[in-house]
Amino acid sequence: MGLMIGVGRADITAPVGAHLSGYAARKTPAVGICDDLCATALYLEQGDVRAAVIALDLLHLGPDETDELRRRCERQSGVPAANVLIACSHTHGGPALGLGPGDDVRVAYTDCLFWRAAGALTEARHTARECRIGHARKEALVACNRRERTPEGVILGVNPDGPRPTVADVLAVTPLSGGAPLAVGFVYGCHGTTLGGDNYLVTADYQGVARRFVEGQMPGTRGFFLPGCGANQNPYPRGTFEHARQHGTRLGAAALAAEPTLKDALAKVAKKDPVLRAEAIAMRRSGNRVFLAGTTDESHYYAAAELLRRWGCRWYLPTDFGECIPEMPRLTIGDLDVAYAPPFEIRKYWISWNGDSTGKEEFMRRNFFNDECVPNGHALAQYVSELIPKGKTMFNVPIAEEKTIEHVAKKVSAAFGRGERIIMGMEDGIYQSDSARD
Fold first, then answer.
1. At what angle do helices 63-77 and 104-126 cross, to 10 degrees?
2. What percent of the chain stands above pLDDT 90?
């Protein structure tokens, strides 16, 4: 058995009346709820090793709270506490936490939160199946450096010239049996501070928007956020829930655009160590989205043509004359998870000298052909011109003699060493020499 992964989810939205964490200036409790907070649990098992990742829509957990949550995860799920990774999104719109005395709402909420998160991990373990994990990196421009330099010194502001993250790392957990990913995670280094200290509504900030965006576009898939190194980064612009929506949508779109498991599927079927080129296509349906991809620009076209072929389209000859397109009132796609690579590197359609080439390019692409070729042609004369016998022609050069072979080898060895393609086809004619070897 390979890598087993399961996903669980629990609602951990704080109640109205809980104090929010992240800004010391806030002195009164939350007055409302803008959006939900979630705990997303990933259970991982391979051989005798069991581990977990708990992604929380919270600002942070202190050491004592982290240890307590790990203990409850072990008690509920059987995953060793030392193997439980806790990751908080760092939203500044989440509740204050703690089990110590002083705030009954805080203590009651924290206790409930821990049991809910542990329960999500238990759910994840019981739903685990054999999966693969894919990774990709996509552009995501959400953050701006907040260490602003002024004549009076560095302040918390806006520094567009400072270093900032420009990409999000995307992880996709997909069952080996096929179908939509169980989970899509995104890692980005930026504070959850789109909303400022004047906000008194519970919110997961842009991270929650990204999670909901992914889940809305990929039904059945759980989205989750893991924080990167973002201590000097704030969302920009910031200050409103609309800004949070824009940033989260941008981050979620980057996660969807990646669909990293397609790359894994292509690599799995593409020919290893090709002589000339390796091509492969992958097609996958995930919820209401269809992903088509190839290993080359031409292969992207092949993938689209293959989908059309599955709907009954055929191209028997170039131009409309050889095209067969069925009339269908409705196009449907069922389960789709296909990766394919042709066994031959060269797949060519050739039209003789005076043939009509109209429609040739489209015909080739729609039938998985390419323009690749093994170097060939009548070109030997340029390498043996010095060996032509006096008063004769290139057709009288003793082709099979050792001296001819050595002569040609000296001429092409440098180009061959540089990896250049070399054509040495014999000339089009009748060869005749005095050599017994010929």
1. 40
2. 57
